[in-house]
Amino acid sequence: MAKIKIPLADPSWEYRSLRNEIDSAVKKVLEEGKFIMGPEVELFEKEASEYLGAKYAIGMSSGTDALLASLMAIGVKEGDEVITTSFSFIATASVIARVGAKPVFVDVEEDGFNMDPEGIKRAITKKTKAIIVVHIFGEPARIEEINKIAQNNGIKIIEDCAQAFGAKIGSKKVGTFGDIGCYSFFPAKPLGCAGDGGLVITNDENLATILRMMRVQGASGKNLHKFVGGNFRLDTIQAAILKVKLNHIDSWLEKRGILAGKYLEKLAPLEKSRKITLPKCRQETISSWAQFSILAKNRDKLKNYLLENGIGCEVYYPIPLFRQECMAHFYDKTYEKYERVEKVCREVLSIPVHQSISIEHIEKVSQRIIEFYE
């Protein structure tokens, strides 16, 4: 296998480009010694809430824990059902099972990777307590339409924005449409830290209060535990790093958008000849382009060809969630009808689109893909 020259992600570039700022921020934390719930956590929460347009932001230990704490905060329990997409990282579904509820999966929409609102309508039962809406690959889901469905049925909405920090519908950022928005700061995300980290946002004061307790073992005060919570705290060092990077996120997202636009231009002839399908963005949305994901004929051969030519790429995700072994006991034969997600999992391939690469890199990746099909 050739050495990767154009990586799928390059978190170390962010450190190299911001070395002095990050070193200074981390040094300050180390010198102060307030490694758990230090002042940088609250400062980052304040700046993140202002950036995202939410009243409250609560730092979490990971995107997974952000989802888990959110389900706990709205009271999802054994016997409840939570509707979610069949196409996402396993954490989206596993957190539902961890609180004892049943994940109910729906197919993806006809022209994209996000969940189908019509499928949500069909999946609602008397046991439905919540919907986890994933903004997959950074492209906003049809959250406004899903909101109406939820409101008509008295159902809570949790937005899984793990890949969508800064993505927008109109002028409003995702995460602020539902009851709770959850983010991941895994290093390869559009806004990433130097380890694991996450965030929850909400405009509901009561939910914010509960979530703050949930992340510290359900404590309302020292040795006073109102809920069964968890250790879901965001480390001070990670908060300090995120605070530095947050100042640069808009320029990074703009760069990702420019690079994605070049892919759309260069690869359009392949879509016209039906060799690939390019990602679609609705006119009113702005994606964070966490990944640039295509549907490709002979996907696995294309993947190997790109890797052999030093181009990083990956399959997100090769198996629908309801076909994962750990979800087998929730399996329902009706899922076999979900042909859209089955096709997506057979053909999806993510190629590099991040702020550390150039237009020339995009042109090179595009040319290799064109050469493969020629």
Question: Which architecture of the largest domain per CATH?
Answer: 3-Layer(aba) Sandwich
CATH topology of the largest domain: Aspartate Aminotransferase, domain 2
Q: Return the structural class.
A: alpha/beta
User: How many domains comprise the coordinates?
Assistant: 2
Q: Whole-Å distance between the termini?
A: 22 Å
Task: For the largest sheet, list the strands in their spatial order.
Answer: 1-9-8-5-4-2-3
Instruction: Figure out the total of helices.
Output: 14
| CATH homologous superfamily annotation of the largest domain | Type I PLP-dependent aspartate aminotransferase-like (Major domain)
Give the overall shape. globular
Number of strands: 15
Measured by DSSP, the beta-strand proportion falls in 15-25%
CATH top level of the largest domain is: Alpha Beta
The average pLDDT value, as a whole number, equals 96
* Estimated helix fraction: 40-55%
Query: What is the helix/strand order?
Result: HHHEHEHEHEHEEEEEHEEHHHEEEHHEH
Q: What is the CA-based Rg, rounded?
A: 21 Å
What's the story with the biggest beta sheet? Answer: 7 strands, mixed
Structural notes for this entry:
With about 375 residues, the protein is α/β, with parallel strands linked by helices. About 40% of the residues lie in helices and about 15% in strands. It has two domains: about 230 residues, Type I PLP-dependent aspartate aminotransferase-like (Major domain) (Aspartate Aminotransferase, domain 2, 3-Layer(aba) Sandwich), CATH 3.40.640.10; about 120 residues, Aspartate Aminotransferase, domain 1 (Alpha-Beta Complex). It has 14 helices and 15 strands. It has a seven-stranded mixed β-sheet, with helices on both faces. The longest helix is centred in the last third of the chain and has 18 residues. The chain is globular and about 65 Å long. The mean pLDDT is about 95.
